[in-house]
């Protein structure tokens, strides 16, 4: 069988899935990997051209196929070969998700006539990753969202961390607090945790973190994003929207307002916004509006050299904490 896996980063999940499936179904299979970037395309073609009915099953992989100048001709050539005892994977990275009309038409035809199994990932989506984590760890959507926030969404890392969690749990029930001790937490999640501490008026750990990691601008941008979302929630409440404290009910409510929370053309996971409701209730709408402005003002003053980065961010943190539950 010939597999063509192309498109955005998420394609790597299908790539590893197929790789794992082939290895599982063909124990001890011989494996050969070729990289177009290393000018190994000719060696790849030679390898798949060698056929013998007495040969053992082989796995042959071509990486970075997007570097091929004549990809359409090569795909036609491969599809017309009489391939025996070989599983072939062609990996085609395309982060913009755009395929030329000629290539897309050819792939559609090959998939339709079953000369090649084609998997294309043309849009940003986390569904493949979320489903994998959910199935492997037998956890609900809420826990999946929290775990992915912690470990990131790189397909290779997700698979590695999920395997680590399964070994750690050893059949026990999933507990996010226990899991924090064994997974490799992304820097972004550490910043998220510190930001949450600030918004709950617990700045001590944050100051220690900043002293060690110097992530002042990371904290500033995170505060900006959190406070902006909290201000939107607060403003919607003033307009009469009553958000449910039950997550499943909130998910339905979120569908009506999700466009308001879109950032960089991406809509956040509903649970991420749900978690901000408990933070928002500790601040008045007026104070949230002022704090969003203060984030912008602090960033501007730092970039213009009017204030030192450390001083500006620390003053902002103290200001936020001083307004906690202040009506």
Automatic annotation (TrEMBL):
<dbReference type="GO" id="GO:0006261">
    <property type="term" value="P:DNA-templated DNA replication"/>
</dbReference>
<keyword id="KW-0808">Transferase</keyword>
<feature type="domain" description="DNA polymerase III delta subunit-like C-terminal">
    <location>
        <begin position="190"/>
        <end position="319"/>
    </location>
</feature>
<dbReference type="GO" id="GO:0009360">
    <property type="term" value="C:DNA polymerase III complex"/>
</dbReference>
<protein>
    <submittedName>
        <fullName>DNA polymerase III subunit delta</fullName>
    </submittedName>
</protein>
<dbReference type="Pfam" id="PF21694">
    <property type="entry name" value="DNA_pol3_delta_C"/>
</dbReference>
<keyword id="KW-0235">DNA replication</keyword>
<dbReference type="GO" id="GO:0003887">
    <property type="term" value="F:DNA-directed DNA polymerase activity"/>
</dbReference>
<dbReference type="GO" id="GO:0003677">
    <property type="term" value="F:DNA binding"/>
</dbReference>
<dbReference type="InterPro" id="IPR005790">
    <property type="entry name" value="DNA_polIII_delta"/>
</dbReference>
<dbReference type="InterPro" id="IPR048466">
    <property type="entry name" value="DNA_pol3_delta-like_C"/>
</dbReference>
<keyword id="KW-0548">Nucleotidyltransferase</keyword>
<keyword id="KW-0239">DNA-directed DNA polymerase</keyword>
């Amino acid at each position: 069988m010939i597999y063509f896996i192309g498109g955005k980063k998420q394609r790597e999940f299908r790539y590893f899935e197929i790789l794992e499936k082939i290895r599982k179904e063909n124990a001890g299979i011989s494996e050969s990997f070729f990289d177009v970037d290393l000018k190994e395309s000719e060696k790849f073609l030679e390898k798949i051209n060698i056929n013998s009915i007495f040969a053992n099953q082989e796995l042959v992989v071509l990486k970075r196929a997007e570097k091929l100048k004549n990809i359409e001709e090569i795909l036609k050539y491969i599809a017309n070969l009489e391939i025996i005892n070989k599983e072939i994977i062609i990996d085609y990275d395309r982060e913009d998700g755009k395929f030329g009309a000629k290539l897309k038409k050819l792939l559609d035809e090959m998939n339709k006539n079953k000369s090649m199994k084609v998997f294309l990932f043309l849009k940003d989506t986390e569904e493949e990753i979320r489903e994998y984590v959910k199935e492997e760890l037998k956890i609900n959507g809420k826990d999946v969202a929290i775990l992915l926030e912690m470990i990131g969404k790189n397909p290779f890392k997700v698979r590695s961390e999920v395997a680590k969690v399964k070994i750690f749990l050893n059949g026990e029930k999933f507990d996010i607090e226990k899991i924090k001790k064994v997974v490799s937490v992304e820097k972004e999640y550490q910043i998220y945790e510190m930001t949450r501490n600030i918004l709950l008026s617990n700045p001590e750990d944050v100051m220690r973190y900043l002293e060690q990691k110097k992530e002042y601008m990371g904290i500033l941008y995170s505060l900006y994003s959190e406070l902006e979302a909290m201000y939107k929630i607060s403003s919607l409440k003033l307009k009469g929207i009553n958000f449910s404290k039950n997550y499943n009910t909130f998910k339905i409510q979120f569908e009506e307002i999700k466009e308001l929370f879109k950032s960089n053309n991406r809509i956040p996971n509903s649970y991420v916004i749900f978690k901000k409701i408990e933070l928002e209730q500790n601040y008045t709408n007026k104070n949230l509006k002022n704090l969003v402005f203060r984030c912008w003002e602090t960033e501007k003053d730092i970039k213009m050299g009017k204030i030192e980065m450390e001083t500006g961010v620390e003053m902002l943190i103290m200001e936020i904490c001083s307004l906690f539950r202040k009506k």
